């Protein structure tokens, strides 16, 4: 139960073991995750590899990597390092299938950027390789690991305050500059063919599924007039998700609009709103608002209840909490506490990827509804 005007602080627990990470590639997002690896109490940045050792060395120096970090001139050298427990893979989506499977075959646990694959067929090959080789898989959806997310979920699950979910609206947009729209890997069909749908839409879809307690919708329909660039990559797209019990979700993702990161979840008794769900306004704290059983005062002049703001603080940023949770799962496998890798995270990735596929299929079918089958 979420009380009005609450502030919650979540402290980082002490860790006793360390997961040694290797990074494949020098992507921009790896700057953030490498910092998270060093901040997490149960992980260490062991190595980085690029297609040239000079690039890897320059990247490590520019981003303040520990002096003990090994520098490699190829991805295979990272995977062949026997001291590395896990790899973080921030490569373009088109390369994930090859390198995640290769990492799994080398018995390296895998943290991979989203989207993890171009389609669910590819993802199934990836997940099968991880399962067969007994390695943990997790995608890099950071907001899932912020303590705010669990507290918001508790509100959605409270039948007295929220009731039953009826509708979800989510958006992730940012106004990309001309350099991005011409040269970023996310607008190149041979690198990240899913464009805004795979990059920004992944978060929106995950938010819709999260609000629905990860129940898959029956149908998905892409809305008309998505915007594509000259080579057919999606720059802006909208879609709706429909469940058999009547609840509905809509999302908007775009590289062409002002920065937004919103979720609105509407229940029979309450409403939840969050405006910075992917990256909090402040690194050390995050907020959301709720209101229950709101109505109007006499003569409909005002609301009888105003939304309450809830602030959640954490001792670690959400990306470090992601690394911390992933590393704990790896440690449980390494030291025999877990009989098999945790299946929660591969399952959530696959459900999200299924919706991506359904949106693409709906566009290809002239914006007709597409049934979602797990």
From TrEMBL:
Residues 159-273 form the GFO/IDH/MocA-like oxidoreductase domain. The gene is LOC110796245. It comes from Spinacia oleracea (Spinach). This is Uncharacterized oxidoreductase At4g09670-like. Residues 20-138 form the Gfo/Idh/MocA-like oxidoreductase N-terminal domain. GO terms for molecular function: nucleotide binding. Coiled coil: none annotated. It holds the Pfam family GFO_IDH_MocA. InterPro entries: Gfo/Idh/MocA-like_OxRdtase_N, GFO_IDH_MocA-like_dom, NAD(P)-bd_dom_sf. Belongs to the Gfo/Idh/MocA family.
């Amino acid at each position: 139960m979420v009380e009005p005007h609450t502030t919650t602080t979540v402290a980082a627990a002490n860790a006793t073991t360390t997961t040694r990470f290797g990074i494949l590639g020098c992507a921009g997002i790896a700057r953030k995750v490498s910092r998270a690896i060093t901040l997490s109490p149960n992980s260490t940045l062991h190595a980085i590899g690029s297609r040239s050792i000079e690039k890897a060395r320059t990247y490590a120096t520019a981003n303040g990597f520990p002096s003990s970090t090994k520098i490699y001139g190829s991805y295979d050298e990272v995977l062949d390092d026997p001291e590395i427990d896990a790899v973080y893979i921030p490569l373009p989506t088109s390369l994930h299938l090859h390198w995640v499977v290769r990492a799994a075959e080398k018995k390296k646990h895998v943290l991979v950027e989203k989207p993890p694959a171009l389609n669910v067929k590819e993802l199934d090959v990836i997940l099968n390789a991880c399962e067969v080789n007994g390695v943990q898989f997790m995608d890099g959806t950071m907001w899932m690991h912020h303590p705010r997310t669990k507290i918001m979920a508790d509100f959605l699950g409270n039948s007295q305050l929220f009731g039953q979910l009826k509708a979800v609206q989510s958006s992730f947009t940012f106004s990309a500059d001309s350099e991005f729209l011409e040269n970023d890997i996310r607008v190149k069909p041979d690198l990240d063919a899913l464009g805004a749908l795979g990059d920004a839409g992944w978060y929106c879809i995950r938010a819709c599924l999260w609000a629905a307690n990860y129940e898959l919708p029956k149908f998905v329909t892409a809305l008309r007039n998505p915007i594509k660039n000259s080579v057919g990559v999606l720059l802006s797209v909208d879609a709706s998700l429909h469940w058999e019990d009547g609840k509905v979700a809509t999302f908007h993702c775009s590289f062409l609009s002002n920065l937004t990161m919103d979720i609105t979840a509407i229940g029979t008794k309450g409403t939840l709103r969050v405006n910075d769900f992917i990256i909090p306004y402040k690194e050390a704290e995050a907020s959301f608002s709720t209101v229950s059983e709101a109505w109007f005062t006499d003569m409909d002049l005002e609301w009888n209840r105003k939304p309450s703001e809830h602030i959640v603080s954490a001792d670690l940023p959400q990306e470090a909490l992601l690394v911390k949770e992933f590393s704990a799962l790896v440690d449980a496998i390494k030291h025999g506490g877990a009989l098999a890798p945790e299946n929660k995270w591969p399952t959530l990735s696959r459900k999200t990827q299924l919706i991506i596929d359904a949106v693409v299929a709906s566009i290809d079918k002239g914006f007709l509804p597409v049934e979602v089958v797990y």
